[in-house]
Amino acid sequence: MQQIGFTDPSFFAASNVRDWIKEELNGLRVILFVAGLWWVWRYRNSMCLNDEAIHINKLLLQIHTSAEDIKFCFYQSIPAASSVRHIRWNNDNFDCQILNVNGSCIGAPTRASFRGLICNSAGFYRTVFSGFIPSSSDILEAELSAIFHGLSVATDMGITELVCYSDSLLSINLITGNSSKYHVHAVLIQDIKDKLSQANYSLHHTLREGNQCTDYLAKLGASSDDSLLLHPSPPDDLRPLLQNDATGTLFLRS
Question: Model confidence over 114-155: pLDDT tens digits?
Fold first, then answer.
């Protein structure tokens, strides 16, 4: 036991084995103590019963390995409390027209589609658009298409200042970063960049909690084969979500 760190002479001074074990089980190095007892006992049994000698270095390694395994299983450090954020629609408080977009690939067979919603900064409904992407099951294409068509619809509506929110961080990084000209969606990405540069439009990331209306719409999938449809009035099931947005309802995100 000295070779695993129990070097205090008083450690070996106990006259009663039961009291000695009981005391050490309440000590600061109880895990190493228990692992040491177990492997010394195993070492003794191997010698006495199987005439098998175990090298002292191997014994020490087994003791330390077992001690670390016990710590990992039963004494993991308590993680720091995760930070909790409150998320809402238009979380960045932009005072202009707000475009929320989302894409989806659902169904059997898989149908790729996109949805978007335009409201003013007070949350009042302007329009919803949707579209179907034939012969595709690419979620990235659906997310990028939602952004492109949303910007196009805003332009056709004469909107001069607009913020587009998407919960696809990959799409945003491809558009705002230096994506390869050989990317499979390079043309679509460049088309979006052109749209953004032609008006006072900007692109921002939002979490799903701040994109609930289009997340709901995207889960409906493609209900038609039209490449683009405009919906002058919102579906009835969407109205409670629109009300949450307009009233600034906060949602917890941990």
Answer: 999 999 999 999 999 999 999 888 899 999 999 999 999 999
**Three-class DSSP category at 22:** helix
- Of the CA atoms within 13 Å of residue 140, those in its CB half-sphere come to 13
Cα 79 to Cα 4, 75, 84, distances in angstroms? 29, 12, 14
> Measuring CA to CA, how many Å separate 52 from each of 43, 48, 49, 56, 137?
9, 8, 8, 13, 63
Contact of 71 with 183, CB cutoff 8 Å: no
| The model's pTM | 0.66
CATH 3.30.420.10 placement within the chain: 86-253
- What's 86-253's CATH class? alpha beta
The closest of 11, 30, 29, 7 to 20, measured between CA atoms, is: 11
Spatial contact of 99 and 118, defined as CB atoms under 8 Å apart: yes
DSSP 108-135: TTTEEEEEEEEE-TT--EEEEEEEEETT
φ, ψ for residue 106 (rounded to 5)? -140, 170
